[in-house]
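Q: Here's a chain of 259 amino acids. Please give me its 3D structure as tokens.
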Amino acid sequence: MLDEIIQIVKEAGQIMLKAHNIQEKVQSKVGRANFVTKYDVEVQQYLYGRLSELYPDAVFIGEEDTKQERDRRLCEVPYCFIIDPIDGTTNFIMDYHHSAISVALLSHGETAAGIVYDPYLEEVFYAARGRGAYLNGTPLKLHNLPLGDGLVAMGASPYYREKTQETFRLAAALFDRALDIRRSGSAALDICYVAAGRYVLFYELLLSPWDYAAASLILTEAGGCISSMDHQPISFTEGSSILAATPAAYEEFFQITVE
């Protein structure tokens, strides 16, 4: 079924690529700089429809649902899809081509498969539990680099401005130890970039499950580490801080935060 899910996700990517006059089709959501476009809704509806054909009894949790149902029981059903139709919506609105479709398949509360697709670069990151992680068919196996040998990525939690001071305090501390620091605007891609060895660490103080559900499996199947920033398992039923890294950089992060 994984190949079929990937094909559906790639088809949905065509909606993004064919989008036009995006800024004329934007609505604000709760939180500062939190937007939705008609294309977010179209991509999500397309995915719901096509994936329902593969899994008729599946439950769906998507960023653009009008009524979020993140009850724990939904993630414990035989099949549950967690979907971000366009991760990096602000990038998408501004014609900054760095956004992705993120689809995670959970089975009885455990991530069974994850797909993150960047249609602009035609890069498909994907993984199935116990079967490894891949980028366009090439296996991903990250090198265990420390902070000093790689790039660090950060998310600014723009919807939660009370997180700003702590976010940039950590950025300064990590910048002193890493080669450089980046801010891309797509958490799903940032986590996949750790899996691909492009970053050694990514952090953000508050994200929603659809931001990281698919990418989390891709990273762990590639040999990386992911948790909340207080060293707790990530949650698929509520928001969480996220720390994603190589094992070496992951341990260094916690040494820095206790200094």
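Q: Can you summarize the key feature?
A: Residues 80 and 102 are 14 Å apart (CA to CA).
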